[in-house]
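Project standup — Tuesday

K.O.: blocked on the structure for the chain from last sprint. Re-posting the sequence here as requested.
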Amino acid sequence: MQNNSPSNVDNFPLWRGTGEGFEEDINFDQNHIWHPYTSLTKPLPTYPVVSASGVRLQLADGKELVDGMSSWWTAIHGYNVPELNEAANEQLQKMAHVMFGGITHEPAIKLCQKLVKITPEGLEKVFLADSGSVSVEVAMKMAIQYQHAKGQAQKNKFMTIRNGYHGDTTGAMSVCDPEGGMHHLFSKFLPKHVFVNQPNKRFDESCEEEDYAALEQAFRLNADKCAAFILEPIVQGAGGMWFYSPDYLERIRELCIQHDMLLIADEIATGFGRTGKLFACEHASISPDIMCVGKSLTGGYMTLAATLTTQHVAETVCNGEAGVFMHGPTFMGNPLACAIANRSLELLLECNWQERISTIERQLKRELLPIGNALKVKDVRVLGAIGVVEMNESVDVSTAQKFFVENGVWIRPFRNLIYIMPPYMIAKEDLQHLTATITDFIV
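H.V.: unblocked you, prediction finished:
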């Protein structure tokens, strides 16, 4: 399925750790390039990668690391995948990009056909975006236009769950947790929305009626001003990696229908098999009114996302005052990204992905759950191809990454969480290397 042969750093003569220009480049990086959520006055170490293949990243000094992050949950097939390379090369011979306004092309059509076919029932209309955060912005604007077209312009707020994360652009930030989340510094700048407490029942637990009391009260008090409820189904990602009961999601679906609110499912991190279902909504057997997908859509090759909605929502929006949906990214429907996404989805559906995820889950449970007995550990959670160790205190990222790299793995902790979301094709031995290294770091 992919090339697992060692990478060849000789193809990068200035990036071998000792070559001319290497130290100058690294110094420039440290002093001039802002990496995600890092400081330029107190920069964290950056590890120069020269190539990647299978589940391995090769550093400039020749060291290989087993990747436990799938490049922030995107590279589900691993790296340097022949089928995806071929799809990219074939499309490059035709066109890398063309505007999507007034123009269409086969890669976009085929991709949208696939998305309509594999997503939950009723999601029939597709808006192609260029990143996950933008797809959330699109979903929120779609909900606002929908309510405005129904003569309910006062329904211009959103309801959501605390400890959620939906992206770093302005609209997306506004529905992330305003106090404990990553965007609290912007709280006075962002629009105010309605937040309900994080569901406290775990994924494998059933909810009782009292678990819905605060949720139902939030609907009673605020539904008249809320356009939609936006959430990450089942798995809250960068807000804390919490896995909650499908019962809670099912009740939210019922309440949205009852109170004339749309349900937006942010499946950017959970979509395409990561939780053991093709989409996390399937754990609760529900279909949202709007769904956002991204991250692993292209197998980690290019940035691409999509927002899907129903016939009813689309028709209501387009019959409203504007007559159109008011959004249009420059790189919307990029042919190169769409062609790669088509092949990535084919690879996923052709392989026995359910068994792969189940195998990873069993191994993660077997090897990570015992860490829960350590004094430093608050909780251990596993769902599908996601393994999370929650510590009692924040993890020093610099110290942790130095340890992980020295031991041949790539794991990126955040806050008090050490977690892995490996490529689906990871071998048992490589996954064991990841979990054993986490155990050694903690115990």
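K.O.: great, moving the ticket to review. The CA atoms of residues 201 and 245 lie 6 Å apart. The radius of gyration is 22 Å.
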